[in-house]
Amino acid sequence: MKLEKKNKNLQISIIMSIFAKRNHQNIKIMTKEELIDRINDIEWEDFEAKEAKSELPKNIWETVSAFANTSGGWIVLGIKQNGKKFEISGVDNAEKLEQDFLGTLRSQKFNEPVDAKSMLYHIDGHRVLAFHIASSPHKPIYYNNPQNTFIRFGSGDQRATNGEITAMFHNQSFGIKSEQILLDSNLSMLNEDTIRDYRNYFKLYSPRPNLIGNDITDFCKRIGIADNEGHLNYGGLMCFGKEEWVRHYVPTFWMDLVEIPGRSVREARTRYTYRIPEQENLWEYFQIMIRRLRLIVDTPFMMNDEGFNVEDRSQFKILREALVNMLSHFDPFSTIHSCIHIYTDRVEFFNAGGYPVPISQLGNHLYSNPRNPIIAKIFRLVNLSETIGYGFDMMNEWKEITGNDVTFESDICTSTVTFWLDSDKASDRATNRESNYVSNYVSNHVSNYVTENTQKILDYCLTPKTRREILTFLGLTFQTKNYKMHIEPLVSHGFLELTIPEIPKSRFQKFKLTDKGKKLLITLLKKK
Protein backbone atom coordinates (compact mmCIF):
# COMPACT_ATOMS: atom_id res chain seq x y z
CA MET A 1 0.00 0.00 0.00
CA LYS A 2 1.62 3.26 -1.15
CA LEU A 3 0.81 6.89 -0.56
CA GLU A 4 2.26 9.56 -2.82
CA LYS A 5 4.47 11.92 -0.81
CA LYS A 6 3.75 15.39 -2.20
CA ASN A 7 5.54 18.62 -1.31
CA LYS A 8 7.76 17.16 1.41
CA ASN A 9 8.84 20.62 2.44
CA LEU A 10 5.26 21.77 2.91
CA GLN A 11 4.90 23.36 6.31
CA ILE A 12 2.66 21.40 8.60
CA SER A 13 0.37 22.96 11.11
CA ILE A 14 -0.33 20.89 14.17
CA ILE A 15 -3.01 21.78 16.62
CA MET A 16 -2.86 19.64 19.70
CA SER A 17 -5.34 19.38 22.54
CA ILE A 18 -5.57 17.04 25.49
CA PHE A 19 -9.06 15.90 26.35
CA ALA A 20 -8.43 13.95 29.53
CA LYS A 21 -7.35 15.70 32.69
CA ARG A 22 -5.95 12.47 34.02
CA ASN A 23 -2.25 11.75 33.48
CA HIS A 24 -1.84 10.57 29.91
CA GLN A 25 0.90 8.25 28.74
CA ASN A 26 3.89 10.06 27.26
CA ILE A 27 3.15 9.93 23.55
CA LYS A 28 5.69 11.20 21.04
CA ILE A 29 4.25 13.80 18.66
CA MET A 30 3.69 12.25 15.23
CA THR A 31 5.05 14.45 12.44
CA LYS A 32 3.65 14.63 8.92
CA GLU A 33 6.48 12.46 7.59
CA GLU A 34 5.87 9.87 10.28
CA LEU A 35 2.16 9.91 9.50
CA ILE A 36 2.81 9.21 5.82
CA ASP A 37 5.32 6.48 6.69
CA ARG A 38 2.78 4.82 8.96
CA ILE A 39 0.18 4.78 6.20
CA ASN A 40 2.71 3.17 3.87
CA ASP A 41 3.67 0.60 6.49
CA ILE A 42 2.25 -2.89 6.06
CA GLU A 43 2.05 -3.54 9.79
CA TRP A 44 -0.62 -1.39 11.41
CA GLU A 45 -0.85 -2.96 14.82
CA ASP A 46 -1.12 0.43 16.55
CA PHE A 47 -2.35 2.54 13.65
CA GLU A 48 -5.77 2.62 11.96
CA ALA A 49 -6.66 4.89 9.03
CA LYS A 50 -10.32 5.59 8.24
CA GLU A 51 -12.19 7.70 5.72
CA ALA A 52 -14.41 10.38 7.25
CA LYS A 53 -15.93 13.62 6.04
CA SER A 54 -18.58 15.02 8.36
CA GLU A 55 -19.55 11.86 10.27
CA LEU A 56 -17.58 9.42 12.37
CA PRO A 57 -17.15 5.94 10.84
CA LYS A 58 -19.60 3.45 12.35
CA ASN A 59 -16.84 0.98 13.25
CA ILE A 60 -14.65 3.53 15.00
CA TRP A 61 -15.78 2.36 18.46
CA GLU A 62 -14.53 -1.14 17.74
CA THR A 63 -11.06 0.32 17.15
CA VAL A 64 -11.28 2.44 20.31
CA SER A 65 -12.10 -0.68 22.31
CA ALA A 66 -9.33 -2.68 20.59
CA PHE A 67 -6.62 -0.09 21.24
CA ALA A 68 -7.73 0.49 24.84
CA ASN A 69 -7.65 -3.27 25.48
CA THR A 70 -4.20 -3.83 24.01
CA SER A 71 -1.25 -1.45 23.75
CA GLY A 72 -2.97 1.70 22.54
CA GLY A 73 -2.68 3.27 19.10
CA TRP A 74 -3.59 5.99 16.61
CA ILE A 75 -6.92 6.43 14.81
CA VAL A 76 -6.46 8.70 11.79
CA LEU A 77 -9.50 10.20 10.03
CA GLY A 78 -9.33 11.58 6.50
CA ILE A 79 -7.52 8.71 4.76
CA LYS A 80 -9.23 7.10 1.76
CA GLN A 81 -8.51 3.63 0.43
CA ASN A 82 -8.27 3.37 -3.35
CA GLY A 83 -7.68 -0.24 -4.27
CA LYS A 84 -4.52 -1.28 -2.46
CA LYS A 85 -3.36 2.30 -2.06
CA PHE A 86 -4.26 4.92 0.52
CA GLU A 87 -4.46 8.64 -0.12
CA ILE A 88 -5.20 11.69 1.95
CA SER A 89 -8.78 12.82 1.39
CA GLY A 90 -9.18 14.99 4.49
CA VAL A 91 -12.16 15.72 6.71
CA ASP A 92 -14.75 18.46 6.13
CA ASN A 93 -15.59 19.43 9.68
CA ALA A 94 -12.75 18.54 12.03
CA GLU A 95 -14.24 20.46 14.97
CA LYS A 96 -17.55 18.56 14.80
CA LEU A 97 -15.82 15.19 14.45
CA GLU A 98 -13.58 16.03 17.38
CA GLN A 99 -16.53 17.02 19.59
CA ASP A 100 -18.59 13.97 18.59
CA PHE A 101 -15.69 11.61 19.25
CA LEU A 102 -14.68 13.04 22.61
CA GLY A 103 -18.27 13.53 23.68
CA THR A 104 -18.93 9.84 23.14
CA LEU A 105 -15.83 8.90 25.14
CA ARG A 106 -17.14 11.04 28.01
CA SER A 107 -20.65 9.59 27.78
CA GLN A 108 -21.97 6.31 29.18
CA LYS A 109 -21.35 4.48 25.90
CA PHE A 110 -18.15 2.93 27.27
CA ASN A 111 -18.00 1.11 30.59
CA GLU A 112 -14.90 3.07 31.66
CA PRO A 113 -13.48 6.47 30.67
CA VAL A 114 -11.12 6.21 27.70
CA ASP A 115 -8.02 8.39 27.66
CA ALA A 116 -7.47 10.20 24.33
CA LYS A 117 -5.23 12.82 22.76
CA SER A 118 -6.00 14.56 19.44
CA MET A 119 -3.91 16.18 16.73
CA LEU A 120 -4.95 18.11 13.63
CA TYR A 121 -2.72 18.02 10.54
CA HIS A 122 -2.90 20.37 7.53
CA ILE A 123 -1.40 18.58 4.52
CA ASP A 124 -1.74 19.69 0.89
CA GLY A 125 -4.87 21.65 1.69
CA HIS A 126 -6.49 18.74 3.51
CA ARG A 127 -7.18 18.44 7.20
CA VAL A 128 -6.39 15.09 8.82
CA LEU A 129 -7.64 14.42 12.34
CA ALA A 130 -5.80 11.89 14.52
CA PHE A 131 -6.63 10.52 17.96
CA HIS A 132 -4.27 8.58 20.16
CA ILE A 133 -6.08 6.03 22.33
CA ALA A 134 -4.15 5.04 25.44
CA SER A 135 -3.99 1.49 26.72
CA SER A 136 -6.46 1.38 29.58
CA PRO A 137 -5.53 0.18 33.08
CA HIS A 138 -9.18 -0.87 33.54
CA LYS A 139 -9.58 -3.56 30.89
CA PRO A 140 -11.86 -4.81 29.44
CA ILE A 141 -13.09 -1.67 27.71
CA TYR A 142 -16.31 -2.19 25.78
CA TYR A 143 -19.23 -0.16 24.47
CA ASN A 144 -22.88 -0.85 25.31
CA ASN A 145 -22.27 -4.41 26.59
CA PRO A 146 -19.34 -6.80 27.26
CA GLN A 147 -19.94 -8.60 23.96
CA ASN A 148 -18.60 -5.46 22.28
CA THR A 149 -15.12 -6.03 23.66
CA PHE A 150 -12.48 -5.89 20.94
CA ILE A 151 -8.73 -6.48 20.79
CA ARG A 152 -6.14 -5.51 18.23
CA PHE A 153 -4.79 -8.42 16.22
CA GLY A 154 -2.25 -7.49 13.56
CA SER A 155 -3.78 -4.66 11.54
CA GLY A 156 -7.40 -5.39 12.42
CA ASP A 157 -9.92 -5.35 15.23
CA GLN A 158 -11.28 -8.66 16.47
CA ARG A 159 -14.05 -9.40 18.92
CA ALA A 160 -12.51 -10.76 22.12
CA THR A 161 -13.21 -14.34 23.09
CA ASN A 162 -14.75 -15.22 26.45
CA GLY A 163 -11.34 -16.44 27.59
CA GLU A 164 -9.70 -13.15 26.67
CA ILE A 165 -12.41 -11.17 28.44
CA THR A 166 -11.95 -13.34 31.54
CA ALA A 167 -8.20 -12.73 31.40
CA MET A 168 -8.83 -8.97 31.32
CA PHE A 169 -11.02 -9.19 34.40
CA HIS A 170 -8.23 -11.15 36.11
CA ASN A 171 -5.87 -8.31 35.27
CA GLN A 172 -8.06 -5.87 37.18
CA SER A 173 -6.62 -7.46 40.32
CA PHE A 174 -3.09 -7.04 38.94
CA GLY A 175 -0.69 -6.36 41.82
CA ILE A 176 -3.42 -6.87 44.42
CA LYS A 177 -4.47 -10.52 44.56
CA SER A 178 -1.22 -11.94 45.96
CA GLU A 179 -1.48 -9.55 48.94
CA GLN A 180 -5.08 -10.51 49.73
CA ILE A 181 -5.43 -12.06 53.19
CA LEU A 182 -7.18 -15.43 53.52
CA LEU A 183 -9.13 -14.89 56.73
CA ASP A 184 -9.80 -18.60 57.30
CA SER A 185 -6.13 -19.56 56.86
CA ASN A 186 -3.34 -20.12 59.39
CA LEU A 187 0.36 -20.92 59.53
CA SER A 188 -0.28 -24.66 59.82
CA MET A 189 -1.17 -24.57 56.11
CA LEU A 190 2.50 -23.94 55.28
CA ASN A 191 4.85 -26.77 54.41
CA GLU A 192 7.26 -26.74 57.35
CA ASP A 193 10.19 -28.07 55.31
CA THR A 194 9.68 -25.48 52.57
CA ILE A 195 9.47 -22.43 54.84
CA ARG A 196 12.41 -23.70 56.91
CA ASP A 197 14.48 -24.16 53.75
CA TYR A 198 13.67 -20.63 52.59
CA ARG A 199 14.52 -19.21 56.01
CA ASN A 200 17.92 -20.91 55.87
CA TYR A 201 18.56 -19.33 52.45
CA PHE A 202 17.45 -16.04 53.92
CA LYS A 203 20.03 -16.28 56.72
CA LEU A 204 22.81 -16.84 54.20
CA TYR A 205 21.96 -14.43 51.40
CA SER A 206 19.49 -11.76 52.47
CA PRO A 207 20.65 -8.16 52.97
CA ARG A 208 17.86 -7.84 55.58
CA PRO A 209 19.00 -9.99 58.55
CA ASN A 210 16.69 -8.01 60.85
CA LEU A 211 13.73 -9.86 59.32
CA ILE A 212 14.85 -13.32 60.50
CA GLY A 213 12.82 -13.03 63.71
CA ASN A 214 12.79 -15.36 66.69
CA ASP A 215 10.94 -18.25 65.04
CA ILE A 216 9.05 -19.27 61.91
CA THR A 217 5.88 -17.46 63.01
CA ASP A 218 7.73 -14.22 63.60
CA PHE A 219 9.62 -14.65 60.32
CA CYS A 220 6.43 -15.09 58.28
CA LYS A 221 4.96 -11.91 59.69
CA ARG A 222 8.13 -9.90 59.12
CA ILE A 223 8.53 -10.86 55.46
CA GLY A 224 4.87 -10.05 54.82
CA ILE A 225 3.24 -13.40 54.07
CA ALA A 226 1.08 -13.41 57.23
CA ASP A 227 -0.71 -10.75 59.28
CA ASN A 228 -0.42 -10.31 63.04
CA GLU A 229 -3.14 -12.92 63.63
CA GLY A 230 -1.28 -15.51 61.55
CA HIS A 231 -3.58 -15.36 58.52
CA LEU A 232 -1.75 -16.02 55.26
CA ASN A 233 -2.02 -14.06 52.02
CA TYR A 234 -2.30 -15.69 48.59
CA GLY A 235 1.34 -15.00 47.71
CA GLY A 236 2.69 -16.61 50.87
CA LEU A 237 0.46 -19.66 50.54
CA MET A 238 1.44 -20.22 46.90
CA CYS A 239 5.14 -19.88 47.72
CA PHE A 240 5.32 -22.08 50.82
CA GLY A 241 1.97 -23.83 51.30
CA LYS A 242 1.07 -27.49 51.57
CA GLU A 243 -0.25 -28.89 48.32
CA GLU A 244 -3.78 -29.56 49.57
CA TRP A 245 -4.20 -25.99 50.80
CA VAL A 246 -2.61 -24.37 47.76
CA ARG A 247 -4.99 -26.24 45.48
CA HIS A 248 -7.93 -25.55 47.78
CA TYR A 249 -7.53 -21.79 47.38
CA VAL A 250 -5.97 -21.81 43.89
CA PRO A 251 -7.45 -24.81 42.01
CA THR A 252 -5.60 -23.90 38.78
CA PHE A 253 -2.17 -23.81 40.46
CA TRP A 254 0.34 -25.75 38.36
CA MET A 255 3.56 -25.05 36.46
CA ASP A 256 5.53 -27.12 33.99
CA LEU A 257 9.01 -27.58 32.55
CA VAL A 258 9.56 -29.80 29.53
CA GLU A 259 12.84 -30.68 27.80
CA ILE A 260 12.33 -31.53 24.12
CA PRO A 261 15.16 -33.17 22.11
CA GLY A 262 14.66 -31.11 18.96
CA ARG A 263 13.85 -27.68 17.56
CA SER A 264 10.15 -28.54 17.75
CA VAL A 265 7.92 -31.28 19.11
CA ARG A 266 7.40 -32.55 15.57
CA GLU A 267 11.15 -32.78 14.92
CA ALA A 268 11.89 -34.58 18.18
CA ARG A 269 12.02 -38.37 17.96
CA THR A 270 10.48 -38.50 21.42
CA ARG A 271 8.02 -35.97 22.84
CA TYR A 272 10.29 -35.05 25.73
CA THR A 273 13.28 -36.33 27.68
CA TYR A 274 12.34 -34.70 30.97
CA ARG A 275 9.19 -33.29 32.51
CA ILE A 276 9.10 -31.78 35.96
CA PRO A 277 6.98 -33.64 38.53
CA GLU A 278 4.18 -31.62 40.13
CA GLN A 279 5.34 -29.71 43.21
CA GLU A 280 3.55 -28.46 46.29
CA ASN A 281 4.36 -24.77 45.98
CA LEU A 282 6.32 -22.15 44.06
CA TRP A 283 9.52 -22.41 46.12
CA GLU A 284 9.68 -26.15 45.39
CA TYR A 285 9.03 -25.51 41.69
CA PHE A 286 11.79 -22.90 41.67
CA GLN A 287 14.33 -25.28 43.24
CA ILE A 288 13.86 -27.95 40.58
CA MET A 289 13.48 -25.57 37.64
CA ILE A 290 16.66 -23.67 38.45
CA ARG A 291 18.67 -26.88 38.59
CA ARG A 292 17.39 -27.96 35.18
CA LEU A 293 18.21 -24.56 33.68
CA ARG A 294 21.74 -24.74 35.03
CA LEU A 295 22.40 -27.90 33.03
CA ILE A 296 21.93 -26.20 29.65
CA VAL A 297 24.11 -23.08 29.95
CA ASP A 298 27.69 -22.12 30.73
CA THR A 299 28.09 -21.41 34.44
CA PRO A 300 31.15 -19.70 36.00
CA PHE A 301 33.09 -21.86 38.42
CA MET A 302 32.69 -19.37 41.28
CA MET A 303 28.95 -19.98 41.54
CA ASN A 304 27.55 -22.18 44.26
CA ASP A 305 24.97 -24.89 43.62
CA GLU A 306 22.03 -22.49 43.87
CA GLY A 307 23.54 -19.77 41.68
CA PHE A 308 23.73 -17.18 44.46
CA ASN A 309 26.50 -14.80 43.46
CA VAL A 310 26.06 -11.05 43.28
CA GLU A 311 28.86 -10.55 40.78
CA ASP A 312 27.75 -13.31 38.45
CA ARG A 313 26.62 -11.98 35.06
CA SER A 314 26.50 -15.40 33.42
CA GLN A 315 23.96 -16.99 31.14
CA PHE A 316 22.68 -18.83 34.18
CA LYS A 317 21.90 -15.68 36.13
CA ILE A 318 20.02 -14.28 33.14
CA LEU A 319 17.86 -17.40 32.93
CA ARG A 320 17.36 -17.27 36.68
CA GLU A 321 16.13 -13.69 36.35
CA ALA A 322 13.74 -14.83 33.61
CA LEU A 323 12.43 -17.61 35.86
CA VAL A 324 11.81 -15.25 38.78
CA ASN A 325 10.21 -12.79 36.36
CA MET A 326 7.87 -15.54 35.19
CA LEU A 327 6.89 -16.47 38.75
CA SER A 328 6.37 -12.81 39.68
CA HIS A 329 4.07 -12.14 36.72
CA PHE A 330 2.19 -15.40 36.16
CA ASP A 331 -1.59 -15.50 36.57
CA PRO A 332 -2.25 -18.37 39.02
CA PHE A 333 -6.01 -18.21 38.39
CA SER A 334 -5.74 -18.67 34.64
CA THR A 335 -6.61 -22.02 33.08
CA ILE A 336 -3.45 -21.55 30.98
CA HIS A 337 -0.43 -23.03 32.74
CA SER A 338 2.96 -21.36 32.78
CA CYS A 339 5.67 -23.54 31.30
CA ILE A 340 9.37 -23.54 30.40
CA HIS A 341 10.03 -25.28 27.08
CA ILE A 342 13.68 -26.25 26.66
CA TYR A 343 14.36 -27.04 23.00
CA THR A 344 17.79 -27.75 21.54
CA ASP A 345 18.02 -24.29 19.98
CA ARG A 346 16.13 -22.13 22.49
CA VAL A 347 14.60 -21.80 25.94
CA GLU A 348 11.02 -20.46 26.07
CA PHE A 349 9.46 -19.02 29.22
CA PHE A 350 5.75 -19.20 28.40
CA ASN A 351 3.67 -17.46 31.03
CA ALA A 352 -0.01 -17.26 31.88
CA GLY A 353 -0.77 -13.53 31.96
CA GLY A 354 0.34 -10.65 29.74
CA TYR A 355 2.68 -7.84 30.74
CA PRO A 356 1.10 -4.78 32.41
CA VAL A 357 2.57 -2.34 29.87
CA PRO A 358 3.49 -2.61 26.17
CA ILE A 359 6.72 -4.52 25.53
CA SER A 360 8.31 -1.41 24.04
CA GLN A 361 8.01 0.31 27.43
CA LEU A 362 9.21 -2.53 29.66
CA GLY A 363 12.84 -1.46 29.66
CA ASN A 364 12.03 2.21 30.23
CA HIS A 365 10.88 1.96 33.84
CA LEU A 366 13.03 2.04 36.96
CA TYR A 367 10.10 0.74 38.96
CA SER A 368 8.49 -2.65 38.90
CA ASN A 369 4.80 -3.43 38.82
CA PRO A 370 4.62 -7.22 39.11
CA ARG A 371 1.33 -9.06 39.03
CA ASN A 372 2.35 -10.80 42.26
CA PRO A 373 4.30 -8.30 44.41
CA ILE A 374 4.46 -10.64 47.41
CA ILE A 375 6.03 -13.38 45.28
CA ALA A 376 8.46 -10.90 43.71
CA LYS A 377 9.44 -9.67 47.17
CA ILE A 378 10.09 -13.21 48.44
CA PHE A 379 12.68 -13.79 45.71
CA ARG A 380 14.12 -10.30 45.97
CA LEU A 381 14.72 -10.70 49.71
CA VAL A 382 17.23 -13.49 49.04
CA ASN A 383 18.97 -11.71 46.14
CA LEU A 384 17.39 -13.86 43.46
CA SER A 385 16.19 -11.00 41.25
CA GLU A 386 16.80 -7.39 40.33
CA THR A 387 15.66 -4.91 42.97
CA ILE A 388 14.27 -2.41 40.45
CA GLY A 389 12.57 -2.61 37.08
CA TYR A 390 11.43 -5.79 35.40
CA GLY A 391 14.87 -7.39 34.96
CA PHE A 392 14.61 -6.80 31.21
CA ASP A 393 17.93 -4.99 31.04
CA MET A 394 19.60 -8.07 32.47
CA MET A 395 17.71 -10.41 30.13
CA ASN A 396 18.76 -8.27 27.16
CA GLU A 397 22.39 -8.95 28.11
CA TRP A 398 21.86 -12.44 26.71
CA LYS A 399 22.79 -11.25 23.21
CA GLU A 400 25.91 -9.49 24.48
CA ILE A 401 27.09 -12.59 26.35
CA THR A 402 26.08 -15.33 23.90
CA GLY A 403 25.73 -13.55 20.56
CA ASN A 404 22.21 -14.99 20.31
CA ASP A 405 18.88 -13.16 20.31
CA VAL A 406 16.35 -12.83 23.09
CA THR A 407 12.76 -12.07 22.04
CA PHE A 408 9.68 -10.91 23.94
CA GLU A 409 6.03 -11.49 23.02
CA SER A 410 2.85 -10.64 24.90
CA ASP A 411 -0.89 -10.60 24.40
CA ILE A 412 -3.86 -10.34 26.74
CA CYS A 413 -3.65 -13.91 28.05
CA THR A 414 0.01 -14.88 27.76
CA SER A 415 3.59 -13.68 27.47
CA THR A 416 6.71 -15.42 26.18
CA VAL A 417 10.42 -14.71 26.58
CA THR A 418 12.68 -16.76 24.29
CA PHE A 419 16.44 -17.15 24.73
CA TRP A 420 18.08 -18.53 21.60
CA LEU A 421 20.97 -20.98 21.91
CA ASP A 422 23.88 -21.76 19.58
CA SER A 423 22.25 -23.48 16.62
CA ASP A 424 25.41 -25.38 15.65
CA LYS A 425 25.22 -27.30 18.92
CA ALA A 426 21.53 -28.16 18.65
CA SER A 427 21.99 -31.68 17.27
CA ASP A 428 24.57 -32.50 19.94
CA ARG A 429 22.20 -31.30 22.65
CA ALA A 430 19.39 -33.44 21.25
CA THR A 431 21.57 -36.56 21.15
CA ASN A 432 22.97 -35.95 24.62
CA ARG A 433 19.55 -35.34 26.15
CA GLU A 434 18.07 -38.47 24.67
CA SER A 435 20.99 -40.75 25.60
CA ASN A 436 21.27 -39.22 29.07
CA TYR A 437 17.55 -39.66 29.56
CA VAL A 438 17.66 -43.37 28.76
CA SER A 439 20.67 -44.06 30.98
CA ASN A 440 19.26 -41.98 33.83
CA TYR A 441 15.88 -43.63 33.48
CA VAL A 442 17.38 -47.10 33.71
CA SER A 443 19.64 -46.28 36.66
CA ASN A 444 16.84 -44.52 38.55
CA HIS A 445 14.05 -46.99 37.86
CA VAL A 446 15.52 -50.40 37.08
CA SER A 447 15.09 -51.54 40.68
CA ASN A 448 11.57 -50.26 41.29
CA TYR A 449 9.94 -49.87 37.89
CA VAL A 450 11.71 -51.63 35.00
CA THR A 451 10.54 -55.11 35.85
CA GLU A 452 10.82 -58.36 33.97
CA ASN A 453 7.43 -57.58 32.42
CA THR A 454 8.74 -54.25 31.16
CA GLN A 455 11.49 -55.94 29.19
CA LYS A 456 9.03 -58.53 27.90
CA ILE A 457 6.70 -55.81 26.61
CA LEU A 458 9.51 -53.93 24.87
CA ASP A 459 10.76 -57.08 23.18
CA TYR A 460 7.22 -58.20 22.26
CA CYS A 461 6.34 -54.83 20.70
CA LEU A 462 9.17 -54.84 18.17
CA THR A 463 6.18 -55.43 15.90
CA PRO A 464 2.92 -53.57 16.77
CA LYS A 465 0.62 -55.30 19.24
CA THR A 466 -2.84 -54.55 20.64
CA ARG A 467 -3.50 -53.98 24.32
CA ARG A 468 -5.21 -57.35 24.60
CA GLU A 469 -2.30 -59.11 22.89
CA ILE A 470 0.22 -57.56 25.29
CA LEU A 471 -1.73 -58.38 28.44
CA THR A 472 -2.46 -61.91 27.23
CA PHE A 473 1.24 -62.37 26.47
CA LEU A 474 2.02 -61.36 30.08
CA GLY A 475 -0.63 -63.73 31.42
CA LEU A 476 -2.73 -60.86 32.77
CA THR A 477 -6.45 -60.15 32.54
CA PHE A 478 -7.81 -57.49 30.19
CA GLN A 479 -8.41 -54.89 32.93
CA THR A 480 -7.73 -51.17 33.05
CA LYS A 481 -5.57 -51.47 36.17
CA ASN A 482 -3.19 -53.85 34.35
CA TYR A 483 -2.98 -51.49 31.38
CA LYS A 484 -2.18 -48.53 33.65
CA MET A 485 0.43 -50.52 35.57
CA HIS A 486 2.32 -52.12 32.69
CA ILE A 487 1.62 -50.34 29.38
CA GLU A 488 0.62 -46.73 30.07
CA PRO A 489 3.93 -45.75 31.78
CA LEU A 490 5.91 -46.96 28.76
CA VAL A 491 3.73 -44.83 26.47
CA SER A 492 3.91 -41.71 28.67
CA HIS A 493 7.72 -41.96 28.84
CA GLY A 494 8.06 -42.39 25.09
CA PHE A 495 9.22 -46.03 24.99
CA LEU A 496 6.05 -47.16 23.22
CA GLU A 497 3.89 -45.17 20.80
CA LEU A 498 0.41 -45.51 19.34
CA THR A 499 -0.03 -46.62 15.76
CA ILE A 500 -3.16 -44.41 15.53
CA PRO A 501 -2.23 -41.43 17.75
CA GLU A 502 -5.02 -39.21 16.42
CA ILE A 503 -7.64 -41.69 17.73
CA PRO A 504 -6.24 -43.03 21.03
CA LYS A 505 -9.29 -45.22 21.76
CA SER A 506 -9.57 -46.72 18.28
CA ARG A 507 -10.49 -50.42 18.34
CA PHE A 508 -7.67 -50.93 15.84
CA GLN A 509 -5.11 -49.30 18.14
CA LYS A 510 -1.73 -50.97 18.58
CA PHE A 511 1.48 -50.20 20.43
CA LYS A 512 4.93 -50.29 18.89
CA LEU A 513 8.47 -49.78 20.13
CA THR A 514 10.05 -46.34 19.61
CA ASP A 515 13.72 -45.61 18.98
CA LYS A 516 14.04 -44.64 22.62
CA GLY A 517 12.36 -47.89 23.59
CA LYS A 518 14.89 -49.82 21.51
CA LYS A 519 17.74 -48.09 23.35
CA LEU A 520 16.17 -48.98 26.67
CA LEU A 521 15.73 -52.59 25.60
CA ILE A 522 19.38 -52.82 24.53
CA THR A 523 20.47 -51.28 27.84
CA LEU A 524 18.38 -53.75 29.82
CA LEU A 525 19.74 -56.69 27.86
CA LYS A 526 23.30 -55.53 28.56
CA LYS A 527 22.57 -55.39 32.27
CA LYS A 528 21.69 -59.09 32.31
Description:
This protein has 528 residues and is an alpha+beta fold. It folds into 3 domains: 14-160, Schlafen, AAA domain (Methyltransferase, Cobalt-precorrin-4 Transmethylase, Domain 2), CATH 3.30.950; 162-431, Heat Shock Protein 90; 446-527, Winged helix-like DNA-binding domain superfamily/Winged helix DNA-binding domain (Arc Repressor Mutant, subunit A), CATH 1.10.10.10. The chain contains 18 helices and 17 strands. It has helices at residues 32-40, 60-69, 94-106, 162-171, 192-205, 216-222, 234-240, 243-249, 282-294, 315-329, 373-380, 392-402, 426-445, 452-460, 467-474, 480-486, 488-492, 515-527; strands spanning 14-18, 47-50, 73-77, 79-82, 85-88, 116-123, 126-133, 150-153, 156-159, 255-259, 274-275, 338-342, 346-352, 406-410, 414-420, 496-498, 511-513. The strands form 5 sheets. Strands 11-10-12-13-15-14 form a 6-stranded mixed β-sheet. A 5-stranded mixed β-sheet has the order 1-6-7-3-2, with helices on both faces. Strand 6 (116-123) and strand 7 (126-133) form a beta hairpin. Helix 7 packs across helix 11 (373-380), helix 10 (315-329) packs antiparallel against helix 12 and helix 13 crosses helix 18. The longest helix is centred in the last third of the chain and has 20 residues, at 426-445. It is globular and about 90 Å long. It starts with 13 loop residues before the first strand and ends with a helix. Residues 1-25, 301-311 and 441-449 have low confidence and may be disordered.
